[in-house]
Each structure stands twice: as C-alpha cells, then as structure tokens.
Write a structure and sequence with these properties.
By secondary structure, the protein is an alpha/beta fold. It contains 13 helices and 10 strands. Strands 1, 2, 3, 4, 5, 6, 7, 8, 9 and 10 form a 10-stranded parallel beta sheet that branches.
C-alpha cells in the first residue's frame, strides 16, 4: 500500500506526514487494519524497540471539580457515583505509589481534580514528591494538577517533579463544545509553562467524544507543534451521570487506527495507551502494543483497569518487555530533560518481527455497554489494596 510505505519511510526519518496522509490512515478499512498496524509497528520498533514503559496513577484528590469538562466523572454537576475525597497525606500517596513501583512502574503520575493548584496545593504536592522519591529510588514523578499560575511550574520542578501532564484533549475548533470554564489556549499555556520550567511535557488527547476525523488530526498536529515528550491517548469512558454517557463511538478497529495515526505523526515520541483501553480495545489490546510504547498499569483515576498481573502477562505474551529503570525511554536525539535512566535506548531493526493476526471483535451491544465501565472502589482514598 503506497500510503503506508510512504508513512513508514517518513517515520523512520522523523518526518511529519501531511494532514491528508493522517486522515487517510483513519479512513482505512477493517480489511487493511493489520497492514496499518504492521506499518506503524515498524516505526514504533525503530525508535523504542520492544520496550513498554509502565506508568502508575495516584489520584491525590478525587471529585468535586469546579470545571465543566463534559467527559469527566469528576466535573461540576457530575452524577457519576465515583469516589470523592480530599487531599491524600504525603505518606498515603507514597504508599500508593510504592505499590505501582513494586508492580513494575517506572513513572508515578500524581493527579488532583480542580481548575488548578493553589500555592498551598503546590506545597502539598512538593511534600508528596519528596516522600515518593525518598522511598523509591530512581522513580520518575509526573504531576497533573490542572492549569498552572505564574511560578508554580518552577516550584514543582524544584521539588523534584520530572514531568507535568496537561492534555489538549480535542481540537481547538471543538474545544468549546466539551468545556466552557476554560479554553484551549489555557491548556497550551500550561504545557508551555511546564516546558519553560525544565519539566518534561506530557500532553495528549481523548478520542471517542463524537469528534470528526479532522478534529483528531488537528489535535495531534497541535500536540506535535507543542513537541511534548509523551502523548497519552485516552479513549472516552462514558460514565453514567456525565453529559457524554451515551457517546459509544469507538470499535476496537477504530481505536487501533487512531493509535496508528498518532504514531505516524509522533514517530519518536512516547505514545502512551491511557484510559479506556480495556473498554474499547478489549481483546485487541495486545495489538496496540505494536503501536504504543507506554501504558498505565492497573487502575485509573475513577475507573478500574484490568488486573496489574494481567497487564504484565499481556506484555510478555505479545513478545514485548517491561522497560527497566536503568533504560532511558526517549531516543538519544530527544533527550532534553532525562527520564530516569543512564543507558541509551536500544533501537530495533525496522523490518523485524511481523505482527500477529487477531480476530475482529464486534462492538458491544447497547444492552451490555454499561457493564464495561467499572468505577474504582480500591486503592487511593479507600481501605482496600490498590491494583498494581
């Protein structure tokens, strides 16, 4: 297929595809799916070999957010029956983080609901970062606290934060359709503040909110322009009690095409399979490992993921390996901030290892879709052990 050959050649040269090429990937048929996965897999292996980086979420403060982001179970007016609690103490957060590190996580992501942190909140998170790093040598810490005010990025960096996450989520043209309490430019500004402070930028998207192919391509190109080190790809989890509860727009095949498009646009960037993978990819999750080089281990902020041991088994069974703390994630030419490793990343022959075929899985019926969303009832904010 000429399109895929051209995209592989560009990806191996770190050359940006055109918008038309990116749109064409999303328009490919299910019959062409394995060809698309195989092509994007060549690019993934060139820059990241067969390594999979594990990340672990700790929800520091859950629910009761004043923002009205339509996709979020923690939003203003949400009726989703999620866990709600105020700030975890540093030792509680460190204990939760340790479970993820013990499970193989290389990065701990500290997340708190809200528009953005107060200065007191930055102090709390700084104490938490110190506690985690004291107890877990070599772990990376990423903060995700919402919109940043002047000077806060620098304080987080000084406290030991390696990275900051703030997703663009969707295209600038449609951002107002999913949120009215802040705008697209606010999000761009926060990513730029994190970069200016010396933190590694982590910024991604949410697919499945009713957006068009053009919206998906636009947000990925906007991310590429920001040049983050990590791009998480989330698939909407349609929580009951949120405005997007009925938005079931994804099949496993479309989810894979979206991941492939992101990989072609971001060939040498850490592409992370994030929230919603179990809900929308289901039994085709192993195929996604040929496209992404990073996943979350265990549970998410307000929903449960598959068991951590199953994540590890999936990685091994698919022929991949968990990235160790002594390995640097990003290719050498992209290392600006360092990411916890001393050894250079190993690349693999771009022509090696054909993708394994997988059966097409039908989308869930209307009757059982709700059963795919499991609200988190364990881990941070509860008395039950975490899933890691």
């Amino acid at each position: 297929m000429d399109l895929l050959n051209a995209l592989v050649d560009k990806g191996l040269r770190r050359e940006l595809p055109t918008r038309e090429e990116a749109l064409a990937v999303l328009a490919t048929s299910d019959d062409e799916l394995l060809d698309v996965v195989a092509a994007a897999g060549k690019v993934r292996r060139q820059w990241f070999g067969r390594r999979v980086k594990l990340n672990y979420l700790v929800n520091l403060k859950s629910g009761l957010c004043p923002e009205d982001c339509s996709y979020c179970s923690q939003r203003l007016g949400s009726k989703a029956e999620i866990l709600k609690y105020t700030w975890l103490k540093p030792d509680e957060a460190s204990k939760a983080a340790a479970a993820g590190v013990a499970g193989g996580a290389k990065r701990v992501c500290l997340v708190a609901s809200g528009r953005g942190p107060t200065d007191r909140d930055v102090d709390r998170v700084s104490e938490t970062i110190s506690a985690i790093k004291e107890q877990n040598e070599g772990v990376e810490v990423c903060a995700c606290l919402g919109l940043l005010s002047d000077g806060q990025a620098g304080r987080l960096r000084s406290a030991g934060a390696d990275a900051y996450n703030h997703n663009l989520n969707t295209s600038e043209a449609t951002y107002g359709d999913i949120c009215t309490t802040h705008d697209f430019s606010d999000r761009v500004s926060t990513v730029q503040q994190a970069q200016a402070a010396g933190m590694s930028a982590c910024s991604g998207l949410i697919a499945g909110m009713g957006e068009s192919d053009a919206d998906l391509v636009d947000v990925v190109f906007a991310l590429r322009e920001l040049d983050p080190d990590s791009v998480p790809v989330n698939f909407l989890i349609p929580f009951e009690g949120t405005p997007l509860a009925k938005e079931w727009n994804l099949t496993p095949q479309r989810a894979l095409r979206i991941l492939a498009m992101v990989r072609f646009v971001c060939p040498d960037i850490e592409v992370r399979l994030a929230g919603g993978r179990e809900v929308h990819l289901r039994t085709l999750q192993p195929l996604a490992l040929h496209l992404v080089n990073s996943i979350f281990l265990g549970d998410y902020l307000t929903s449960e993921g598959q068991a951590g041991k199953d994540d590890l088994a999936m990685i091994e069974d698919a022929g991949f390996e968990v990235e160790g703390a002594d390995t640097t994630t990003l290719p050498e030419h992209r290392r600006q901030h360092g990411d916890g490793g001393a050894e250079p990343a190993q690349t693999a022959d771009a022509e090696a290892d054909a993708e394994a075929p997988a059966a097409t899985v039908p989308a869930p019926s209307d009757e059982n879709r709700r059963d795919l969303v499991a609200v988190r009832r364990r881990g941070a904010g509860t008395d039950l052990p975490p899933n890691a």
